[in-house]
Amino acid sequence: MSIVNPSFIEEMSRFTEFNAYACINCGSCTALCPMGIDLLPRRMFRHVMLGLEDKVLENTENIFSCLLCKMCEENCPKDVPIVDNIKSIRWYINREIFKLGRN
Amino acid sequence: MAVPIKHILGILVDNLSIRGSVLPLSKSRSTGWAKGLDIPMGGKTVIYTGHMYQLIPSITAMEKMTSKFANSWISKYYGIGRMVNKVINISRFMTWTNANERAKFDGMLRNIALLLKTAEVDFGYLYGEELYTGTLVYDEGINDVFEYHAHKVYERIKKHNVERVITVDPHTTDMLKSVYPKIIKDYQLEVKSYLEVLAESNLKPLKTLEQDIVIHDSCVYARYEGIIDQPRQLLENAGAKIIEPINSRKMTYCCGGPVESLFPIKARTVADSRVEQLTSAGDSSVTMCPICYINLKAAAENNGLSVKDISDYLVEAYCDRNNSV
Amino acid sequence: MSDKRRIGVYVCHCGGNISDYVDVEKVRDAVKDDQDVVISKNVMFACSDATQQEMIEDIEKEKLDGLVVASCSPMLHLQTFKAVAQRANLNQYQYTQVNLREQCSWTHRDNMEKATEKGIKLVRAGIARTRLTEPLVNIRIETKPKTLVIGGGVSGLRAALALADLGLAVFIVEKEYEVGGWTKKWGKMFPNNKIGSETINTLREQIRQHEAITLFTGAELIKKEGSVGDFAVKIKLVNHEIISFDVGAIIVATGFDSYEPFDGEYGYGLNGVVTLPQFKEMVDKSNGSLNLNGSRVKNLAYIYCVGSRQPEDGDLENPNLYCSRYCCSAAVHTASCVADVDPGINQYHLYRDMRTYGKYEVMFEDAGNKKSLFVRFDGEALPEVKESDDSLIVKVNDMLDGGEEIEIGVDLVVLVTGMVPRKNENLTNILKIPIGLDGFYNEIHPKLRPVETVVAGIFIAGSSQGPKTLAESVISSLSAASKSAGLLMKGYVDLEPFIAEVNTDKCIWCGECEKSCPYGAIEKVFCDTKEVATVISALCKGGGVCIPDCPEDAIELKGYSDNQIKSMIDALMKEVV
Prior knowledge:
B: 9% strand, C: Rossmann fold, FAD/NAD(P)-binding domain, five-stranded parallel sheet, 32 strands, 30% helix
């Protein structure tokens, strides 16, 4: 059981925009992923939007495994900025978890 | 043990912050390719390598180390490695490169310069003043480090009154053309890939490429920048027959390169799939990105597929090698 | 019946459709010498112009008084050959169609011999029936150019205006003290954000200016007599005065009720659990922020399909199996309105299937773009709502994330309630129009006759017939108006004469037939010295339920008399040699 946390997405979007609200959960992205990561990016984005931080962090390796090749984004019927979103999640993890960055 | 993402990224960040590049190159190594080409320093139009071709031999060396580490006791000490690296440039030791490799990539840059000269493009070069654009930290999402660095790069370019840059690889093209304008105010730089510049020029082939070539589009050129027809036009004008693999143009398939530095095994799986696609289309393939080149080359090692950078083909068709320096 | 009849029989090939499997020559030969058959022919296409003309000439020349065409289904060509009879001055009810195609050749392709045998029997039965036909005359009713509209919601008002614009008088009877129904109560309504009460104000103003329209509010229909084209109605007015007048048609536009969740259904009854209509009122009244009990709402959840698509095999006695159509669109539209009021509110939509069909899809997208989040639940695992210290907790399995169980803490739960039929028992009894299993008024045919009821002259409009959006309600109300005008502007209506007829000699007035008739078409009259039943021809539908209920066999159905049926059975039983 996971608790929905609305403030997570606010934190996620504090420095960069995270936007997957247009997603209709068609799953084209997952089907096309050359990495074959069944979680990416559709379900991962749900976890972010619902604020299920544990689920997001559980999948750190998957998040950093994305090729950023845009195969999914090119074929997304709702034009979700998938790659920018992935980078937003990376930036969140780098900043809040790895404490990487200028500070 | 899991891959120490945090520490590998940490080393990249530290290097960029402290030494100006993710994997520091000496100035002689980053500018060595231009030796004897008589390219003037600076100018309104410059060729901008972004160090991508020069970095490949070092990245390859580091990956070899990483893939050795991935499941060994050493990965536990990556964290310590990062601390040491801040003081002593250990990534330098990790990235011993071999001279043949270096000469190959330098050769590609020389090809490009020669092609531009043949097309009568007037251009300079920033030599030791040129900086790496920060692609890797941008992709990994270390945004504040990247943004700081990007401003530094832009200021450096502007210091030399450059108005137009000609880029040589897709990643640097995307950075300077599409990413920088989003984060830098009043950004004023005209950016074109050399493939665009050549495609727009009056370059005439001197020799016919009587060859079937399987084309591997770079994800970044095809999907980020829409550069798809230019390489085809240049090769076809020279008489080559372009073979499109299953995944091609906007639907091109990744070479696996972007995750090499963190997950070399995963990257190799993707590269293997792509090589299989290319092999089933033909014997000779062409890439237009140094990262694609090195990854597909490695995956094609035992399968007989020839992998060449597009500059090799173009120079053969369009340039008089005897005129080269 | 001993009178000699003169019957013409035409057996059609249907270009092979029949003759490939039924030996039509043999069929003709078998009946050509039957009693009263004076002409029997095989024809390639009975429906062709040339053959129709040939039949007309035969009827006139041979002075036929009965016609049998053995061809396709009467659904296809009954009217065609009735018209042939009429053109030859033969009474149309002395024509019989025998279905030799759908019910014979096409169904028995495997056995031509048996198919032919069956064909012969069917044609013989047709001849037998025809032999006993009588010329019947349609029942013609002069229509009153006035319509009664029951219900002053948007459907009723719009229908009234449409009729009045055609020059027909309209009476609107509205039970409430004001017109407008649900629409009047609502603020911004999809898809164009027009304020509901403004829509009603516009209609009311137009109605006020129309001399042809009389509006009674606080009034009720208490009696209806007569039939299509000529109803006599009684209305009880707000001051309890009863008035009577005649109308030619009645439009029922009584609307819907919003589903009222039962106590505890998704936490209904807890502070902060509201229905969609209640929530819409909150949103309409909000100004800058959405508040509940004085504090600002930050997180809210919608639960869809409340009161709609209820499980057939669950605990509910009369589950609503239907989809209420309007609620998905209304909920996403409301969510967009909420985001416009306060973009900071987090809105979670717990839905089963998103049915923002047609153009309303863009509202779904709009809500998504305004950061509404959609969580799909399964009909087998419904969300749960419970109270915690300072908020409500909604528990749901997210089907878009592999059924992952999640808990959402919210300040407000909006139950997206559907439409249920109005409780109108009195009215239904007065009008005697049928109700479907779902409780809404039933149309004759869901595709081809969507606003007519089995009671001629009574039409249904808007959501009295089933869940509809406002736009769809207006479409159906205009449809009812045009059907009503079509009826009344012709000036008369012809009814088929297949109605019950009482043999007054046999009748002893026991009242059984009156009880069995669903249309109130039987009444008691004095005939000579005794009480007998009589049929009100304009009300009788020819349903025939009275006939078996009569202990004296005193009722027959014109056109389908007992003798006719018996003679057909005898013909079917006769061996084919």
